[in-house]
Amino acid sequence: MSVSGKGAARVGIGGPVGCGKTALLERMLPRFGALGVEVAVITNDLVTDEDARRLREKRLIDPARVVAVEAGACPHTVIREDPTLNMEAADALDRRFPMLDLILIESGGDNLASTFSLDLVDYWIFVIDVAGGDDIPRKRGPGVIQCDLLVINKVDLHAQVDVDLARMMAEATQVRDGRPLIGTSCRTGEGIDAVVDAIRREVLFADVLQPGAAEA
Amino acid sequence: MSDPSAEAVLGLLTSLRLGDGQFPSGAFAFSGGLETLCADGHFARGDLGAFLMGQLTGRWLPFDRAFVEAAAAAHDDADRLAELDETVDALTVGDLQRRSSQRAGRALLGVHARLGTAGAADYRTRVERDGLPGHQPIVQGAMLAASGLAISQVAACAAYGVLSSLCSAAVRLGKVSHLDAQAALVAVHPALAAALARPAPPLDEAAAFSPLTEIAMMRHDARPSRLFSN
Ligand SMILES: Nc1nc2c(ncn2[C@@H]2O[C@H](COP(=O)(O)OP(=O)(O)O)[C@@H](O)[C@H]2O)c(=O)[nH]1
Ligand SMILES: [Mg+2]
Q1: Which of B30, B114, B227 faces A47 most closely, judged by CB atoms?
Q2: Could you give the strand order of the β-sheet that contains A149-153, starting from the edge strand earlier in sequence?
Q3: Which residue in B20, B22, B28 has the most chain A C-beta atoms within 10 A of its own C-beta, making it the best mutation to test that interface?
Q4: B111 touches chain A (CB under 8 A)
Q5: Do B107 and A73 touch (CB under 8 A)?
Q6: How far from B150 is each of A137, B15, B38, B221, CA to CA, in Å?
Q7: What is the pLDDT of residues B194-214, one digit of tens each?
Q8: Is A153 close to ligand 1, i.e. is its CB under 6 Å away?
Q9: Which stretches of chain A drop beneath a pLDDT of 70?
Q10: pTM: predicted TM-score of the whole model, two decimal places
């Protein structure tokens, strides 16, 4: 059962500008498609619908299933203090596409303090990337600490930016008291299946509802 | 003066809660044409007070107020609300302006439905099922009244919401400071209070005329990049 009481499960994807949130969506959408999971996307671009257009143009899902919500120059407000317009957009998607399993909500990109309202999402992912510096987990931002799943993206770049990836992952695990995190590269595809599986397990209960589907 | 009654204090507290920027109304995503006015060079730092005054005297007082108060009076009569809703729709000419008012109104209705405000879930069902527009002044008036405010409080609360969201948009557009915004509010409040002490215009005389912002909202739709919904 979703936070909406009925309809599709709602998953937030937050994290600083440029960490790879849209790239992660672009990697996950075909995977969900192959698994038969019905998905729609809400973007909260800072300046209108750049991300929404990117997703629609690539035809990774039906363009009608991608909706842009303006953030009024306040990307954190639209997901935290006043998620009303996002909730309304998600309700409208549920009405329009009753078969939806999952609505992915990409935040406009903000600082490490941004968290998602519990009225808006059932589960949320915070994305950071190795190129942003290996000290990010140590800064203990609420986003990094409180999210249900931390994704450390751009692992392919760790050598170029002198980041000790193993240590960064270990520190992140430590500040999160052992709660889940996954290293990904949207360039090579590394770790993407693990993120998709986490969403299917934690939000869609795929292992319970579709026994055997985990091997699919 | 005698001590205020608990009932009066509760009314004040309800007004403060519903008029607070913390109330999740979705209003922060709307600039009411201000973003385009700024981009077109029609708005400078010192203009906020005059801009607010223009929005009040050109639009809110002669138009929105009449519907806000009528909806407040009819808050438990969904058929009458539907009629008022369709009238606002017919009288709102600009396409983006009409869509924005619907979007803000429906979002507000969704919040009140989740909060369990009387009549909200029913009217929301009608908006979805019968394709009613769900315009902002109608939803605002009905929901403020259903939350327990008297008509005069409904009008003050709704007007304050408009002013406060325009101020907040101006601050976020980087055009005015937070103190400029307070000064502008202080400057326009006496005129607003005086106007609210007189009756609202009758519904069949309700009309708005604020050409510069109306044109700005029409032009807003065509902007390639924008922060606000209108
Ligand atoms: N090398 C590398 N680049 C990436 C990766 N993920 C995203 N990028 C690049 O990082 C930039 C920002 O990505 P984007 O998805 O737009 O970030 P968003 O602002 O978080 O949505 C783009 O140029 C992407 O191609 C990755 O895993 N590795
Ligand atoms: Mg993006």
Answers
A1: B227
A2: A66-68, A39-43, A102-106, A9-14, A123-129, A149-153, A181-183
A3: B28
A4: yes
A5: no
A6: 51, 10, 37, 37
A7: 999 999 999 999 999 999 898
A8: yes
A9: 1, 48, 209-216
A10: 0.89
Q: Whose Cα sits closest to atom 14 in ligand 1?
A: A20
Name the token pair of A143: 């986003």
* Contact across the interface for B30 and A46, Cβ inside 8 Å: no
Across chain B, what does the average pLDDT equal? 93
A142 min Cα distance to partner chain B (Å): 20
pLDDT score of A2? 72
Residue environment code for B53-74, b if the CB has 16+ CB neighbours within 10 A, otherwise e: bebbbbbbbbbbbbbbbbbbbb
What domains are there in chain B, each with its CATH number? 44-214 (1.10.4190.10)
Which residue among A42, A129, A152 is best mutated to probe the pocket of ligand 1, counting the most ligand atoms within 8 A of its Cβ? A129
pLDDT in tens, A2-14: 777 779 999 999 9
- Count of all residues that appear for chain B in the document: 230
Q: What is the pLDDT of residues A138-184, one digit of tens each?
A: 998 999 999 999 999 999 999 999 999 999 999 999 999 999 999 99
Inter-chain touch A84–B31, beta carbons under 8 Å: no
Is there an atom of ligand 1 within 6 Å of A44 CB?
no
Chain B residue closest to A45 (CA)? B227
What is the least distance, in Å, from the CA of B211 to any CA of chain A? 23
User: In order of start, what are the domains of chain A with their CATH numbers?
Assistant: 9-203 (3.40.50.300)
Of A71, A84, A95, the CB nearest to B25: A84
Q: What is the 3-state secondary structure (H, E, C) of chain B?
A: CCCCCHHHHHHHHHHHHHHCCCCCCCHHHCCCCHHHHHHCCCCCHHHHHHHHHHHHHHHHHHHHHHHHHHHHHCCCCHHHHHHHHHHHHHHCCCHHHHHHHHHHHHHHHHHHHHHCCCCHHHHHHHHHHHCCCCCHHHHHHHHHHHCCCCHHHHHHHHHHHHHHHHHHHHHHCCCCCHHHHHHHHHHHHHHHHHHHHCCCCCHHHCCCCCHHHHHHHHHHCCCCCCCCCC
